[in-house]
Amino acid sequence: MELLSALRYLCQKGIEYQTLNTKKIFIDERGNSKIDITHLEDNKELVNAYMSPEALRGNKEGIASDIWSLGCIAYELLCLQVVYYLTVAII
Q1: Which long-range contacts link 70-73 to residues 24+ away (Cβ below 8 Å)?
Q2: Which residues contact 5 (CB under 8 A, 6 or more apart)?
Q3: How far is 88 from 57, CA to CA, in rounded Å?
Q4: Is the dihedral of CA 19, 10, 4, 68 positive or negative?
Q5: CA atoms of 53 and 84, how far apart (whole Å)
Q6: Which of 16, 24, 29, 62 has a CA-to-CA distance to 9 between 20 and 30 Å?
Q7: Greatest CA separation for the chain
Q8: What DSSP letter does each residue of 41-73 carry, written as one string?
């Protein structure tokens, strides 16, 4: 719920994540979930992310794409296996 709330907050601020993955989610000393919102500065750096089909096609779907990613992360956490592995170059 904390991650969903964080995505909602980002959406309200006009920020679309679209590269959300487990490497960008942290648990603080109090047990609260946090999303790393630092953005990549090098546009040739590779990102491992659960991108929605819409995002892969280059369409902006807003929070729907972020919720797709969050669903993939929830699956990974519950089943202890990766949904799929995809490496995308950000241009």
Answers
A1: 70/3, 70/4, 70/7, 70/20, 73/3, 73/20, 73/21, 73/22, 73/25
A2: none
A3: 12
A4: negative
A5: 13
A6: 29
A7: 39
A8: S-TT-EEE----HHHHTT---THHHHHHHHHHH
Nearest to 10 by CA among 43, 34, 42: 34
Q: Give the predicted TM-score (pTM) of the model.
A: 0.71
CATH number of domain containing 46:
1.10.510.10
Domain that holds residue 83: 2-89
- DSSP class of 81: S
